[in-house]
């Protein structure tokens, strides 16, 4: 009699585990996008004729790359979410020192907590790099490439790069207003 009870108990436990496993496989929640992915500009944010492709960095905690393209403009952007403001400030200080080499024209712009825009070449054929920091979030956008004598941009690329960065900052501000814990 006791061996039947033990067998029945074991079969009951196995059945429960099997049912729970099946339920988990079919109903497990999908992984949530990272904070950077949720804040990244999409094609809808940019408007008609713009395409945005968001790719998470598989090796970093919360970094994503955003390729922004239309018929006449292309940029690669990176959105970083740091654990705290001091990490973001350190990133900005290091990265802005690297991008503001003597061969570049440097413009200080008002965007986020701190920002810098650099371009190589004449303003009618710029290769543009803009970056800003906002609280614990860093953003970098490169339009054209930074290899001297490489691809040349158009004179309006500087304004377009600033416009895209402003849109990204607006989306960051909206996200932070809705999710204050992300700060």
Structural class: alpha+beta
In CATH terms, what is the fold-level topology of the largest domain? Answer: Protein Transport Mog1p, Chain A
- Sheet of most strands: 7 strands, antiparallel
Q: In terms of quaternary structure, what is this?
A: single chain
Q: What ranges have pLDDT less than 50 throughout 5 or more consecutive residues?
A: none
Note the total helix count: 5
Give the averaged pLDDT, no decimals: 85
Q: What is the CATH architecture assignment of the largest domain? A: 3-Layer(aba) Sandwich
- How far apart are the termini? 62 Å
**What is the tally of beta strands?**
7
Q: Biggest sheet: strands side by side, in what order?
A: 1-2-3-7-6-5-4
Instruction: Tell me the Rg in angstroms.
Output: 24 Å
Shape: elongated
The H-and-E topology, N to C, reads as HHHEEEHEEEEH
How helix-rich are the residues, as a percent range?
A: 25-40%
Structural notes for this entry:
The chain is of the alpha+beta class. It folds into two domains: 1-30; 35-182, Protein Transport Mog1p, Chain A. Helix content is 39%, strand content 26%. It is built from five helices and seven strands; from the N terminus they run H-H-H-E-E-E-H-E-E-E-E-H. Strands 1-2-3-7-6-5-4 form a seven-stranded antiparallel β-sheet, with helices on both faces. It is elongated. The chain starts with a helix and ends in a 5-residue tail after the last helix.
Write a brief structural summary:
The protein has 183 residues and is an alpha+beta fold. The protein contains five helices and seven strands, in the order αααβββαββββα.
């Amino acid at each position: 009699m006791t061996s039947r009870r033990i067998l029945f108990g074991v079969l009951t436990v196995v059945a429960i585990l099997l049912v729970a496993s099946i339920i988990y496989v079919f109903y497990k929640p999908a992984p949530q996008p990272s904070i950077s992915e949720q804040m990244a500009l999409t094609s809808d944010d940019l408007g008609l004729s713009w395409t945005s492709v968001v790719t998470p960095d598989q090796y970093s905690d919360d970094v994503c790359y955003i390729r922004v393209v239309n018929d006449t403009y292309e940029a690669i952007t990176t959105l970083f979410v740091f654990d705290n403001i001091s990490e973001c400030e350190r990133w900005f200080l290091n990265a802005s020192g690297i991008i503001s080499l003597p061969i570049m024209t440097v413009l200080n712009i008002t965007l986020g907590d701190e920002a810098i825009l650099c371009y190589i070449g004449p303003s009618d054929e710029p290769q543009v790099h803009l970056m800003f920091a906002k609280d614990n979030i860093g953003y970098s956008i490169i339009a054209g490439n930074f290899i001297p004598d490489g691809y040349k941009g158009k004179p309006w690329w500087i304004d377009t790069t600033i416009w895209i960065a402003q849109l990204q900052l607006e989306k960051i501000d909206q996200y932070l207003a809705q999710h204050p814990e992300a700060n």
